[in-house]
Amino acid sequence: MKQIAIFASGTGTNAQAIIEHFRENKNTCVSLIVTNNAQSGVLKIAAENNIKTAIVSKEGISDSERMKNLLKEIDFIVLAGFLLLIPEYLVKSFPKKIINIHPALLPKYGGKGMYGIKVHEAVKENNEIETGITIHYVNEYFDEGEIIEQHKVTLSSADSALNIQIKVQQLEHEFYPKCVVRMVK
Q1: Whole-model pTM?
Q2: What is the 3-state secondary structure (H, E, C) of 98-153?
Q3: pLDDT single digits (tens) 133-155
């Protein structure tokens, strides 16, 4: 059975969608949740689904021996709102086996500090007529890995940053689990 680790820092809505998608899968399962936030909602989701967890600080993710030991049985890593940069040693240990989702159409609105509502506020401020999601491989830089797929949504001038976030989350929950299934095979 293939083992997935989900790295998340926040509420865990994408983690929940992925866990639900794999619940009945006989070939793949989510077996580990890694977070850098001891107060994150993803920990509750992990507990409700009997999934092992690990809290890893910024310094901890740089500890290659600890992380390699933690991930020794993991085949694939899915970032779902994880706010720490993935170190180069980890990218090299999992070549084309770490993916991320970004709540905009990269290369627009990506990079350090561009996450969550900040992205949607920037999209609104720039009067974009569309936005969406980008699913990409992870490299050692924020949001610069090779793009796997993008999905778009049309915006109106009446959309607030919160409305944009809701539209984008609908795309995330629809397309990210399906992409993970294709990538893990």
Answers
A1: 0.96
A2: EEEEECCCCCCCCCCCCCCHHHHHHHHHCCCCEEEEEEEECCCCCCCCCEEEEEEE
A3: 999 999 999 999 999 999 999 99
CATH of the domain at 145: 3.40.50.170
* Annotated catalytic residue, options 102, 120, 136, 173: 102
CA 43 from chain centre, in angstroms, equals 15
Q: Cα(first)–Cα(last) distance of the chain, in Å? A: 11
Q: Are 102 and 136 in contact (CB under 8 A)?
A: yes
Cα angle at 149 between 143 and 152, to 5 degrees?
95
Q: pLDDT tens-digit profile of 62-75?
A: 999 999 999 999 99
Q: Domain for residue 17, yes or no?
A: yes
Q: What is the dihedral of CA 130, 140, 75, 61, to 10 degrees?
A: -110
Instruction: Give the range of the structural domain holding residue 10, as residue numbers without chain letter.
Output: 2-103+134-150+175-184
Number of structural domains found in the chain: 1
Q: Judge whether 102 counts as a catalytic residue.
A: yes
HSE-up of residue 182 (Cα within 13 Å, Cβ side):
9
Q: Is residue 46 part of a domain?
A: yes
